[in-house]
From TrEMBL:
InterPro entries: CBM_sf_5/12. GO terms for biological process: carbohydrate metabolic process. It comes from Salmonella enterica subsp. houtenae serovar 45:g,z51:-. One of its GO terms (cellular component) is extracellular region. Residues 55-75 have a biased composition (Acidic residues). Residues 47-87 are annotated as: Disordered. This is Chitinase. GO terms for molecular function: carbohydrate binding; hydrolase activity, hydrolyzing O-glycosyl compounds.
Amino acid sequence: ADKTVSVIQFTTPEVSAKTTLQFTLFVRDEQGEPSSQQRFVLTVVPAASDVQPEPADDVVPDEEDVTPEEDDVTPAEDNTPNPLWDKDTVYGASWGTFEIVSWKGHNYQVKWWSVGDQPDLNCSASGAWTDLGAY
């Protein structure tokens, strides 16, 4: 296989429900040493013919299907043990770097590339952040 290509293609599996896939691309230099890595999260949706109709407006969605809105209130930066999370900062973009941030009284560590994913709203098994506990 040609290891010098600049375009990578792959085929995702067919899914019957919206599915999140996570993968990491590792790039090596001419000596075969790691030079960079990038983590990706890809959401695969069912083919149009497999999509279920949306529920009627009078149907209340399951509690776990409701995504809370992000807070517009930014916590004070005073006395945080780590840098305060910033919605415009790219986290996890450097080789082997999984930053720790403070947000709303907790510390969070990024699991893969993330920008704009508020830690307290994205720390589930499929979320970009791990809750390290209160500070």
